[in-house]
Amino acid sequence: CAVVQEIPPSISFSGSGFMATYQLGVSQCLLNYAPWILRTAPCVLGASAGSLVAAAVVCTIRDEMLNFVKQMKAFTLGPFNPSINVFHWLECILHKHVPSDAHQLANGRLFVSMTRLSDGKHIVMSEFQSKEDVALLCSCFVPVYCGMLPPSFKGVYYVDGGFSSMQPLPVPCMQTLTVSPFSGETDICPADKPCMWDMVVSGTTLKGNMANSFRIINALYPMNLETLEQAYHSGYTDAINFLLYNGESTVYTG
């Protein structure tokens, strides 16, 4: 998927759990070296924690979200402590940083992937009437792990969008830049060595190797904060390599 400045691609951030720090690193790199990709993308999609990164791009809260790695150092495991309600922590972060006009910024541009609880159907929300309607919490809710009662949106219960579509995409004909912290077939992802077999997770093909297994474990319950910080730097580096490979070799200074 080549990046063409005149025809900006849409961007899709996959389900990632706490490995969303990788996607934050990618976002920071694009902001530094190819900001037009973020500013002009017609559709910014996200599933699970990837929807938080998508919202950071669309709702202009990149600075707060991209400082996440530094903020983690202030905690003693913080949200990763098993005694902490992860869902409540996410709720506090969103209410603090999402601007009051988030729905106006998000309408028709932010696409949040969710899974309808009643039938497991994949639903994508792109129209929002208020700040509260920016239904990111629904996209990040993992039953039991985040609590027992899932959030509702307009009276309908939803859970993590990654259950039904790990890498949400817009209409098939629209060029889309895909970002994932797991190695596989996405445009920007870790560059692992070739392996003998692949695995398909919610419609997305991932490499079936030990490195991805560790990433999945850390996405659900990080072994240490250094792992998540390293994922941030890996995402930044992988994004630089992607830009160089696709001919974006100069640093944007405008």
Automatic annotation (TrEMBL):
The active site is at S48 (nucleophile), D160 (proton acceptor). Pfam families: Patatin. GO terms for molecular function: triacylglycerol lipase activity. A motif (DGA/G) lies at residues 160-162. Keywords: Hydrolase, Lipid degradation, Lipid metabolism. PROSITE patterns: PNPLA. InterPro entries: Acyl_Trfase/lysoPLipase, PLPL, PNPLA_dom. One of its GO terms (cellular component) is membrane. GO terms for biological process: lipid homeostasis; triglyceride catabolic process. A motif (GXSXG) lies at residues 46-50. Residues 11-173 form the PNPLA domain. It comes from the Eukaryota. Gene3D superfamilies: Cytosolic phospholipase A2 catalytic domain (3.40.1090.10). This is PNPLA domain-containing protein. It comes from Sander lucioperca.
